[in-house]
Amino acid sequence: MADDTHHGLAAHEVVLLLQSDADRGLGPGEAERRLERFGPNVLPPATGGGLLWRVLRQFHHPLVYVLLVAGAITAALSAYVDSAVIFAVVLLNAVIGFVQESKAETALEGLRAMVRTTATVVRGGRERNVPSSELVPGDLVVVEAGGKVPADVRLVRASELRVDESALTGESVPVAKDETVLDLRTPVADRRNMLHSGTLVTSGRGAGIAVATGAETELGRIHRLVGAAERLATPLTVKLAAFSRILTVVILVLAAVTFAIGVVRGRGVVETFTSAVALAVGAIPEGLPAAVTITLAIGVARMARRRAVIRRMPAVETLGSTTVICSDKTGTLTENQMTVQTVWTPDDVFDVTGSGYGGDGALHDAAGAVATGGVHRALHWCLLAGAGCNDAVLVRGDGRWDLVGDPTEGAMLAVAGKGGLSAPAVTRRHPRVGTIPFSSERQYMATLHRDTDTGGHLVLAKGATERILGLCGAQMAADGGIRPLDPGAVLAAVEGLAASGLRVLATAALPSADPGAFTERQLPGTLVLTGLQAMLDPPRAGAAAAVSACRTAGITVKMITGDHAATAAAVAARIGLLDASGAREGQVLTGADLTALPDHAYPAAVDRARVFARVSPEQKLRLVQALQERGQVVAMTGDGVNDAPALRQANIGIAMGRGGTEVAKDAADMVLTDDDFATIEAAVEEGRGVFDNLTKFIVWTLPTNMGEGLVILVAILLGATLPILPTQILWINMTTAVALGLMLAFEPKEAGIMSRPPRDPARPLLTGALVVRILLVSALLVAGSWWLFTWERGTGASLPEARTAAVNLFVAVELFYLFSCRSLTRSAWRLGLFGNRWIIAGVITQTAGQLALTYLPAMNRLFDTAPVSGEAWLRILGIAALTALVVAADKRLRHQRL
Ligand code: ATP
Fold first, then answer.
1. Which cellular components does GO assign to this protein (predicted)?
2. Is 739 in the same domain as 872?
3. pLDDT tens-digit series, residues 238-249
């Protein structure tokens, strides 16, 4: 199907070529056959370059260069065993790096698949949603605003269709599309009659025949060329990489100076060189890059388990620093399950009973009598506007009614049913002939219908009260009579209903209309207000708890909604987002308030407010910018096409996995697979946990490197024998990083992680207290190993024996210290020793490794070690225990709670 001429053929020729049907699409059986033949419509997994390149990349690290040079020179000096160990370590490091990187990238790829994309196709004459992966060449694909084009498609119909092709061309201005035939030589970027897979529909609607799927699409071709895989890079990893480059240079200079001093003092060149290599090898934290990658990857997986899918890695880190979460109301803080509770007409108010979308329940007037539209004309027209000006459908399935479409519209269909107006009957009597569709900017919807009773036309409308009032010039009485409009009374009724948290939509009608005047420009002032429908949308079960958890964590939650201010404020109060006593001065702002604010007062007012009502998507971008100006780190939710700029501007853009458009998902850093606010709070908690675990690893690993470096430095400066050899240092660094340090990545989150303030992104990773702790442990390591080495030599131990004792001491101290590093503030005892099984497994493995190093003859030969005495072990454990006590005392002094 790599045929590239579809743009040069007429639409009907393409339909013929692909043996499809421009109206009915493929038959379901044929679609299945083609799926088997062409395979699923997915891109082959990105691999981030060829295998060889991926392997080679593992060696592209300053530290590895140092090691390779050291290994080569050691070999030239005939120290073959040392050289072999150095090369083995380099190889091992590369293997670990390669495996970890592949695993992490596969995991990221898998995450992307969790956000399932669907496509609309016509098969066998019926429009249906199928997973995008099941699309086949020949399918009749329907696209509309907000969607992602699922394959390469030759258009057969288009109306006002505009597509953002930046994914393909880099050009972010949407281009208009239509079905006209083009010259065969038209370049890809100018093919107006083709839609390309992965591009985003920003407005309009269209249908076309899929001509290429999966790897055969333009996107697939680019993908093959670039093969770009999402890298595990965050600001922190970039900073750490820079830090380790500087560290390498510093260490190399230090090693060179040490070498020079040694030679000047008249020590052997070979011996001094070996010492300098030991210094370099010991001081560089080899395990750091792998540990960071793994900790981030584990964090991402944990977030996914809690239904937050990370699309861009930096979000993992930013989540821990979030200070403000701006959330939509409907569907995120509330259930988005609407039930009309009250119907208001200019003369009477009706209570509605019964829940669900079935016809159970009824409307009751003030006297408690059952009311129907048959008698009360305003009620009839109010229900008719709700049911007729409506794109939702109720379908019967498994004994209950299910909704396809917008819950607001579903509720209006349901209440019409209770009042005796069934949707199919409405469609039969009043077939729709024109539509002004709903949009968040317009905030209303209007439809033009043919009236089969009179042969004339009628207009129905529904939407936000302010907007509908603008369309109306009169209101309807109970008997159907037309009266002068009383906006004051309508708005007072809305305020009353909204104050209890109900979402209020106004309805209007024009029983006898001129179809020629059905335009957005001519409608205002011509309609008759028929009533209000007030619906309940209960807050989500976990919303109040999540809002309160955010408050404890120092995060402000703000609600941004298109709904009425009083409704928004009432819902906000119910979930604890506003003081129960009601809105304090400046806590609730409307879109109109925002527009009226002078520029200089804007950021402060926005920072103070908690609820933003009747806000249009365009205003969201400025809101985010203002909050950022105030120094806030902003997480913002959004679901529509027009939310994309705000999502991109926010520090963390969050899209809804279920209700959101593909455009919003594409702009977002994180996607919630359950659309629930509580999931954002969970992700913040995980983000904080990731940062904690990274810090713990660094605090654990640095003292070893400093200790090793210093021991060698002191030995050379004093002109003494080296207490540990380069190969032994490599053994310590490699085995402990893998068996002990990495286990910290599995550390569960600490209690109280959500009762501290957000991390200031500008604050360094290591606080003063932690730097002091690192220095303290390094000093203890140097003093302890030096003393032990000298003591062992003094009691007649051989050089290999004394060195083995020193190596075991380093490992023992690290092992004890590991338990302390499980928490940065609380003591190991308080945490309990067995809270993290991985650590126990690591300790057992490491201990076995040390025994092998000490007692296996082969290891003795390889690493210049020798069996040590029982007393030496006692001394080793004694010093390690003492170190643990000192660290515990340091923590207690600083945090006053053991
Ligand atoms: P949120 O922004 O929290 O999701 P919302 O659903 O109220 O809240 P919008 O979808 O922008 O936000 O709707 C704005 C207003 O437009 C609503 O408050 C309502 O009055 C009106 N409205 C919503 N849906 C429809 C619809 N299908 N037809 C007509 N008017 C609607």
1. plasma membrane
2. yes
3. 777 777 778 788
**CA pseudo-torsion sign 640, 644, 645, 649:** positive
* Ligand 1 atom closest to Cα of residue 329: 3
Q: Which tops the pLDDT comparison, 832 or 90?
A: 90
How many A from CA of 525 to the centre of ligand 1?
Answer: 22
Q: Is the pLDDT of residue 582 over 60?
A: no
Of 228, 247, 278, which closes a domain? 228
pLDDT band for 396, please (50, 70, 90 cuts): confident
Q: Are 607 and 629 contacting, i.e. CB atoms less than 8 angstroms apart?
A: no
Q: Across 308-317, 648-657, 754-763, which has the greatest mean pLDDT?
A: 648-657
List pocket residues of ligand 1, CB cut-off 6 Å: 328-330, 406, 408-409, 438, 440, 443-445, 462-464, 505, 561-563
DSSP-assigned letters across all residues of 729-744? HHHHHHHHHHHTGGGG
CATH of the domain at 288: 1.20.1110.10
| Co-location of 494 and 630 in the same domain | no
User: Closest ligand 1 atom, CA of 505?
Assistant: 20
- Looking at the predicted structure, is the pLDDT value of residue 284 above 80? no
Q: Whose CA is nearest to atom 18 of ligand 1?
A: 563
Q: Are residues 343 and 322 in the same domain?
A: no
Residue 341: enclosing H or E segment and its boundaries?
strand 339-344
Task: Give the whole-angstrom CA distance, residue 446 versus residue 451.
Answer: 16
In this prediction, residue 2 carries a pLDDT of 46
Check if the beta carbon of residue 318 is closer than 8 Å to that of residue 758. Answer: no
Residue ending a domain, choose from 536, 561, 592: 536
| Predicted TM-score of the model (pTM) | 0.80
Q: Whose CA is nearest to atom 10 of ligand 1?
A: 440
Count CB atoms within 10 A of the CB of residue 688.
23
Contact 629, 651 (CB under 8 A): no
Q: How far is the centre of ligand 1, averaged over its atoms, from the C-alpha of 563 (Å)?
A: 6
Cα–Cα dist 480/286, whole Å: 83
Q: How far is the CA of 898 from the centre of ligand 1 (A)?
A: 53
Please report, for the domain that includes residue 658, its CATH number.
3.40.50.1000
* Same-domain pairing of 501 and 583: no
Specify if 350 maps to a domain. Answer: yes
Q: Can you give the CATH number for the domain in which 122 is found?
A: 2.70.150.10
Strand 527-536 vs strand 472-476: parallel, antiparallel, or unpaired?
Answer: parallel
**Same domain? 276 vs 367:** no
In this structure, is residue 245 part of a structural domain?
no
Burial class (CB in 10 A: 0-12, 13-18, 19+), 215: middle
Residue pLDDT, tens place only, 130-159: 888 899 999 999 998 888 898 999 999 988
**Which domain covers residue 35, as residue numbers?**
6-43+115-228
What's the confidence (pLDDT) of residue 636?
A: 95
Residue nearest to atom 1 of ligand 1 (CA): 561
My answer on whether 760 and 833 are in the same domain is yes
**Which residue carries 């005892």 as its tokens?**
829
Angle at 285 between CA 279 and CA 288, to 5 degrees: 170
Summarised one tens digit per residue, pLDDT across range 462-477 is 999 999 999 999 999 9
User: Same structural domain for residues 497 and 372?
Assistant: yes
Domain of 348, CATH number, reads 3.40.1110.10
φ, ψ of residue 218 in degrees (nearest 5): -55, -45
Answer yes or no: is 392 within a domain. Answer: yes
Is residue 451 among the annotated active site residues? no
**pLDDT beyond 60 at 741:** yes
Which candidate in 21, 152, 328, 639 is catalytic?
Answer: 328
Statement: residue 829 has pLDDT above 70: no
Residues 144 and 165 in one domain: yes
Identify whether 546 is part of a domain: yes
Number of domains in the chain: 4
Is residue 538's pLDDT more than 60? yes
Q: What is the pLDDT, as a whole number, of residue 586? A: 82
Pairwise CA distance, residues 770 & 232, whole Å: 26
